[in-house]
Amino acid sequence: MIVAESKPIKEVLEMVKDFRKILVVGCKGCVTVCNVGGAKEVAILAATLRIARKRSGQEIEVGEHTLERQCDPEYVGELKEIIGDYEAVVSIACGVGPQFLSERYPGVRIFPGVNTQFMGGAEEHGIWSERCAGCGTCVVHYFGGLCPIARCSKSLLNGPCGGSSHGKCEISKDVECIWDTIVTKMMEQGRLDELIEFKPPKSWTTARDGGPRRMIREELVK
Amino acid sequence: MSEYKSGSNLEKVLKSGQFAFTGECGPPQGANVEHLREKAGHLKGCVDAVNVTDNQTAVVRMSSWAASLILLQDGLEPNFQMVCRDRNRLAIQSDILGVYSLGIRNMLCLSGDHQKFGNHPDAKNVFDIDSMQLIHTVKTMRDEAKFLNGQDLDVAPELFIGAAANPFAEPFDFRVYRLAKKISAGADFIQTQCIYNMDKFREFMKRAVDMGLHEKCYILAGVTPMKSVGMALYMAKQVPGMDVPDTLIKRLRGAGKGKVAEEGIRFALEQIEEFKEMEGVAGVHLMAIEWEHKVPEIAERAGVLPRPTF
Fold first, then answer.
1. Are B106 and B71 in contact (CB under 8 A)?
2. CA distance to A160, A183, B182, per residue, from B174 (Å)
3. Residues 6+ apart with CB under 8 A from B130
4. Mind telling me how many Å the CA of A151 is from chain B's nearest CA?
5. Is residue A218 part of a domain?
6. Do A72 and A156 share a domain, yes or no?
7. Complex ipTM, two decimals?
8. Bridge partners, A2 (sequence order)
């Protein structure tokens, strides 16, 4: 899923300081799963904004709405009837959400209420970590099912570098050296010959380096 | 065709079978050419080549190719270092051609410390290719006269290709295989990380020799004399991939006030003596960090002077 975290409330208040009618829009997709942008978080943010503005003597009207998905025009269209009642919208979906809203409602000011972090998963409740860099050409099967592009600090394809120590990356004791895990796993599996094989430079054409990406599936296009 | 791959002084020393002795010099954090010349000047006549570091520890300095050229003008042979952190494959290949065209003949291929360590932690890193692929890139350009995309290049850069090895990083069992991989990718010589844990290095070299790696590549053992107990503690705790045994720290502490630096040099000299006899070790790479003026004394006491000339 796409993992995000809430922006500091001060930052959100600063963004909307000139507006008196605001709509907070959540999303029932990834950001609900990572407890940052679902209906519950919409209610919390709306209440926090109301209280903060009341304290500062600039009362505000805050509407609440949570869409099935903000990355889908069908659901984004739902806001058509109500969005005109507000001066600004705070989207607490991933970075896709505020953009889909901005494109669909060009006359409305849209603000992001969360910082989108990465594509990853929950290691346990309350702990998420990155797994995929979206490079467009998956190669995890060469590396014991683990991705050095997303998970090695230097994206080495022929690691580990000289900074690997006690299973940790040189950049921080809190960061796992994924190459240590890859090597240990593949040596245990008797796949040393594959590890020794030279991996040539990767083509980054399918990654973001090839320019903004778009995908067309002809069979699905009406 | 020349009997040499590059004809560099370092290559000639190693190929002649003599024990090589290389040094290191970090470019200034500014355009202080005189300071660079002064530091490097101490190494003249004491070493076969001088490694010129490339924004080491991710701290911005005068570019390694420019500092290499300054050394070259002063009659020193540079070992131009290049890291993959700051350049994509276009810049890498054009810099390779550039340094060769201006007379540089040795190049050390590295991944590079992560920018998080340095003085521009907000930077975006590149890592388009890794050190292994960099080695292979230089070899392809030199031996096949081809760019990475397979296109022909007109005059091939005849560089003596170096790589690093850290026997003290983990997983230890894989380190000798990674060395083998670098040699297969095209490394002509290897300079190791600073060695302090001699037992571990002996084991590493034994494995390398068992695999015959010393016959395919020249391995230079990395030596950095400790200047103080503080430096030893810093190396032990703060520098990634460094293995400083407690026994060495104790030994330095035991030297007494004002005598720690001498004890550090003595330990380095004992190491060099052992490396001269160690099977598979073709030389020493002395990294006297901000201690260049001590290199003549260390070289003299290590009995590696005069250096061979060709």
1. no
2. 9, 7, 13
3. A154, A155, A156, A157, A158, A159, B84, B111
4. 13
5. no
6. no
7. 0.95
8. A119
Q: For residue A201, give the nearest of B125, B129, B240 by CB distance.
A: B129
Residues of A in contact with B113 (CB under 8 A): 163, 170
Residues A192, B184: C-beta atoms closer than 8 Å: no
Please indicate if any CB of chain B lies within 8 Å of the CB of A160: yes
Q: Do B167 and B194 form a contact (C-beta atoms < 8 A)?
A: no
Q: What angle do CA B219, B156, B283 make, to 5 degrees?
A: 15
Q: Is A58 on the interface with B (CB under 8 A)?
A: no
pTM here is 0.97
Longest dimension (CA), chain B: 62
* A214 found inside a domain: no
| Domain shared by A114 and A165, yes or no | no
Q: Do B113 and A196 touch (CB under 8 A)?
A: no
Domain formed by B9-301, architecture: Alpha-Beta Barrel (3.20)
Q: pLDDT digit of tens for each residue in chain B (310 aa)?
A: 478 999 999 999 999 999 999 999 999 999 999 999 999 999 999 999 999 999 999 999 999 999 999 999 999 999 999 999 999 999 999 999 999 999 999 999 999 999 998 999 999 999 999 999 999 999 999 999 999 999 999 999 999 999 999 999 999 999 999 999 999 999 999 999 999 999 999 999 999 999 999 999 999 999 999 999 999 999 999 887 899 999 999 999 999 999 999 999 999 999 999 999 999 999 999 999 989 999 999 999 999 999 999 9
